[in-house]
């Protein structure tokens, strides 16, 4: 059993995006769809595909820090502020599994880093394309759509 879509959106995704200066319901829906596709909203937080809600692989996590955040110290500091003070230094990739807001920030930055236009929240195919481009290059668009229908659309999302 994963996290309820409404609560994930309301208490994790939206506040994290606001913290990063992104007041964007379309980005919120996209991240919710990615979490549904990658981990069934947290039903599987650690598997061969990666860590946490978004199944982020360790090399991608490290590369984001080295190739993107290292060039923007203010943003890096903001993101680092979401991580656990001591645990991050010992095991930074574990933060992707145990720290939902940190994982959400990293997932958002993986999208932002690619300078991808965010589709509208009701554009399921557009969101599926972003998911495939940013998270699962070999993923099938219908898998994203199925995860959305199963995990997200049955719930009334807060807007």
Structural account:
It is built from nine helices and two strands; from the N terminus they run H-H-E-E-H-H-H-H-H-H-H. It has 159 residues and is an all-alpha fold. The chain has one domain. It has a two-stranded antiparallel ribbon. Strand 1 and strand 2 form a beta hairpin. Helix 8 crosses helix 9. The longest helix is centred in the N-terminal third of the chain and has 15 residues. The chain is globular. The two termini are 24 Å apart.
Which range best describes the helical content: under 10%, 10-25%, 25-40%, 40-55%, 55-70% or over 70%? 55-70%
Total beta strands: 2
What is the average of the pLDDT values? 91
Q: What class would the helix/strand composition place it in?
A: mainly alpha
Radius of gyration equals 14 Å
Order of helices and strands: HHEEHHHHHHH
| Individual helix count | 9
Query: How is the main sheet built?
Result: 2 strands, antiparallel
Strand content: under 5%
C-alpha geometry: globular
Give unreliable regions as ranges. none
- The strand order across the widest sheet is 1-2
Number of domains: 1
């Amino acid at each position: 059993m994963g996290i309820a879509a409404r609560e994930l959106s309301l208490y994790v995704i939206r506040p994290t995006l606001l913290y990063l200066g992104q007041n964007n319901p379309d980005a919120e829906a996209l991240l919710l769809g990615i979490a549904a596709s990658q981990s069934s909203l947290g039903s599987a937080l650690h598997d061969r595909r990666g860590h946490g809600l978004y199944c982020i692989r360790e090399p991608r996590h490290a590369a984001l820090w080295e190739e993107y955040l290292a060039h923007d110290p203010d943003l890096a500091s903001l993101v680092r502020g979401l991580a656990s003070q001591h645990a991050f230094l010992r095991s930074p990739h574990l933060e992707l599994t145990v720290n939902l807001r940190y994982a959400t920030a990293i997932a958002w930055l993986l999208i932002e880093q690619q300078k991808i236009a965010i589709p509208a929240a009701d554009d399921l195919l557009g969101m599926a394309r972003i998911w495939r481009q940013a998270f699962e290059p070999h993923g099938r668009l219908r898998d994203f759509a199925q995860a959305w229908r199963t995990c997200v659309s049955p719930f009334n999302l807060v807007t």
